[in-house]
C-alpha cells in the first residue's frame, strides 16, 4: 500500500488540494466550538457529493461539443479516461478545472453568510469530500483491494460504469443519487454498451 499512498499524495493536483485542506483547517480549528462551523463543513461535503454525480452525468458525459477547445477539455477531463481507464494522469481532476469550479460555491457561500470563517469551513468541506472522491476513484482504477466491504463494492460498481455501460452508476463514492435519479441498475440486467470505452462514439451528431 505504501507505494500507492506515495503515488497518490505526491501527484501535483492532489498535493495542491492537500495544501488547501490544511490551510482551511488552520483557519477553522480556532472556531471549532461553534456549531455553525461544523454545519458549514457538512454542507460543503454534501454539496460536493451532489456535484460529483451531477457533473459526472451531465457534463462529463455530454455529447461531444463542436468547439475544439471544449472538446479538448472534455477529452482531458473524462472522455480519454474511458478510453484509458488505468492511465494515472487521467485519474485526477486537474487544478485548472477544480479551482475555478470551486470559486463559484465559495462566492455564493460568502454572499449568503458574509462570514469569511464560515465560507472557509464550507470550502474545507468541499475539499475534504473532493479528496475522498479522488482517493475512492484512484483505488477503483489501481490494483488495490479496498479494506472495507463498502469500498470493495463501490469499486466494483464504478468498474461496471467503465466496462459494462456508461449510462449507469455515475456515483463514485456512493450510489445515493444513482438510486434517486434512476441510474442504478442490477448489473446482470444491463446490456454491455459498445461505447463504454468510447464516449465520443455514442453521439451520431454533435450540437
From TrEMBL:
InterPro entries: Fatty_acid_hydroxylase (IPR006694), Scs7 (IPR014430). The chain crosses the membrane at residues 12-31, 37-55, 90-110, 116-135. Keywords: Endoplasmic reticulum, Fatty acid biosynthesis, Fatty acid metabolism, Lipid biosynthesis, Lipid metabolism, Membrane, Metal-binding, Oxidoreductase, Transmembrane, Transmembrane helix, Zinc. Residues 42-183 form the Fatty acid hydroxylase domain. It is found in: Endoplasmic reticulum membrane. Its cofactor is Zn(2+). It comes from the Bacteria. It is a multi-pass membrane protein. Its main location: endoplasmic reticulum. This is Sterol desaturase family protein. It comes from Paenibacillus ehimensis.
Amino acid at each position: 500500500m505504501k507505494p500507492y499512498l506515495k503515488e497518490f499524495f505526491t501527484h501535483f493536483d492532489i498535493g495542491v488540494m492537500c495544501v488547501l485542506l490544511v490551510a482551511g483547517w488552520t483557519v477553522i480549528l480556532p472556531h471549532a466550538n461553534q456549531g455553525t462551523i461544523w454545519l458549514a463543513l457538512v454542507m460543503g461535503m454534501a454539496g460536493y457529493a451532489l456535484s460529483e454525480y451531477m457533473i459526472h452525468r451531465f457534463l462529463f458525459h455530454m455529447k461531444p461539443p463542436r468547439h475544439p477547445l471544449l472538446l479538448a477539455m472534455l477529452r482531458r477531463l473524462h472522455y480519454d479516461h474511458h478510453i484509458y481507464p488505468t492511465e494515472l494522469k487521467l485519474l485526477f481532476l486537474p487544478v485548472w478545472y477544480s479551482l475555478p469550479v470551486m470559486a463559484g460555491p465559495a462566492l455564493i457561500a460568502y454572499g449568503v453568510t458574509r462570514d469569511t470563517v464560515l465560507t472557509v469551513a464550507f470550502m474545507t468541506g468541499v475539499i475534504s469530500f473532493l479528496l475522498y472522491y479522488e482517493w475512492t476513484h484512484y483505488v477503483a482504477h489501481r490494483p488495490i483491494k479496498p479494506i472495507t466491504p463498502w469500498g470493495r463494492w463501490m469499486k466494483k460498481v464504478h468498474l461496471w460504469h467503465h466496462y459494462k455501460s456508461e449510462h449507469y452508476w455515475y456515483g463514485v463514492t456512493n450510489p445515493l443519487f444513482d438510486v434517486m435519479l434512476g441510474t442504478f441498475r442490477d448489473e446482470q440486467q444491463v446490456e454491455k454498451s459498445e461505447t463504454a470505452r468510447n464516449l465520443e462514439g455514442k453521439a451520431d451528431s454533435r450540437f
